[in-house]
């Protein structure tokens, strides 16, 4: 915690998300593509060196100083800042145009690559395919009516907690109230995208009233305990007979919805 306070910028959610995308891009890089990019860069360097040599042979004395001046002119021309009057003969003008055209092509390719990365980042963020970048937050696993009420409570002025929802749906059911991670909350990789390792707590909700939903919730609790045993887990249970299984999965807090409702009704009557 002290290290996080000393480095607030590094631990900012946006920085952590960008770092996660950077790691994904690194893992997805094709060696053949990297090789072609390096070859293209070497070809550009060779072109600049060749143009500088031709310009020196056509218009200057053959010497190290003259070649250095021609090379500097070629490099600056490639970047669009070259001196048009440096080369006074027709061949120099032709070389200048070639360098300017090559520079424009390079700028277009680099700009296109950067825009493609930004668009991919925004699309993944909108589709829930990114990573939260949060820490000391609450992870909500699964979505139902109880989860909706919990989000409203946790987003109230009394708490204002950072929330991450893991759910498998095309759109974020909580809209903009939480950061959305689309995936299977019983899957370790999807839990890591929600930064479960540095979360404060995890709320596990069954997605329907079936026994199968309880079984999936148990798997989710087990996955969380294996990845981040220090995170407090609170699980909602449909069937009271499944409470023992949740205890064996080491859930910290177990809430049986039917029993809770009956207790509230009885207390209201009393």
What can you see in these coordinates?
There is one protein chain. With 270 residues, the protein is an alpha/beta fold. The protein folds into 2 domains: 7-127, Orthogonal Bundle (Helix Hairpins), CATH 1.10.287; 138-269, Rossmann fold. 57% of the residues lie in helices and 10% in strands. The chain contains 10 helices and 6 strands, in the order H-H-H-H-H-E-H-E-E-H-E-H-E-H-E-H. Strands 3-2-1-4-5-6 form a 6-stranded parallel sheet, with helices on both faces. Helix 8 (211-227) links the parallel strand 4 and strand 5. Helix 3 runs antiparallel to helix 5. The two termini are 46 Å apart. The relative contact order is 0.08.
What keyword list fits this structure?
Rossmann fold; 10 helices; Helix Hairpins; 57% helix; 2 domains; 270 residues; alpha/beta; 6 strands
Task: State the CATH topology of the largest domain.
Answer: Rossmann fold
User: Averaging pLDDT over every residue, what do you get?
Assistant: 82
How much of the polypeptide forms β-strand, as a percent range? 5-15%
Query: Quick one: overall form?
Result: rod-shaped
| Rg estimate, integer Å | 30 Å
Content-based structural category: alpha/beta
The CATH level-2 architecture of the largest domain is identified as 3-Layer(aba) Sandwich
Oligomer: single chain
- CATH top level of the largest domain is Alpha Beta
Unreliable residue runs: 1-6
Q: What percent of the residues sit in helical stretches (DSSP H or I)?
A: 55-70%
CATH homologous superfamily classification of the largest domain: NAD(P)-binding Rossmann-like Domain
């Amino acid at each position: 915690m002290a290290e996080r306070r000393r480095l607030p910028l590094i631990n900012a959610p946006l920085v952590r998300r960008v770092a996660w995308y950077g790691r994904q891009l690194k893992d997805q890089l094709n060696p053949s593509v990297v090789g072609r990019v390096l070859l293209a860069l070497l070809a550009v360097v060779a072109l600049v060196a060749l143009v500088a040599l031709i310009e020196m042979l056509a218009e200057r004395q053959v010497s190290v100083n003259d070649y250095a001046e021609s090379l500097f002119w070629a490099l600056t021309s490639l970047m669009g800042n070259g001196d048009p009057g440096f080369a006074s003969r027709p061949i120099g003008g032709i070389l200048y145009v070639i360098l300017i055209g090559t520079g424009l092509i390079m700028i277009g390719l680099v700009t296109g690559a950067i825009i493609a990365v930004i668009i991919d980042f925004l699309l993944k963020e909108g589709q829930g395919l990114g990573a939260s970048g949060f820490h000391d937050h609450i992870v909500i696993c699964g979505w139902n009516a109880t989860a909706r009420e919990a989000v409203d409570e946790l987003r109230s002025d009394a708490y204002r907690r950072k929330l991450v929802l893991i759910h498998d749906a095309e759109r974020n059911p909580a809209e903009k109230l939480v950061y959305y991670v689309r995936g299977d909350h019983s899957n370790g990789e999807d839990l890591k995208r929600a930064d479960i390792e540095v979360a404060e707590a995890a709320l596990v909700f069954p997605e329907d009233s079936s026994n199968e939903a309880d079984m999936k919730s148990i798997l989710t609790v087990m996955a969380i305990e294996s990845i981040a045993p220090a995170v407090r887990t609170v699980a909602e249970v449909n069937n009271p007979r499944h409470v023992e299984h949740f205890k064996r999965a080491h859930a910290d807090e177990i809430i049986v919805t039917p029993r809770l409702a009956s207790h509230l009704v009885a207390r209201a009557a009393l």
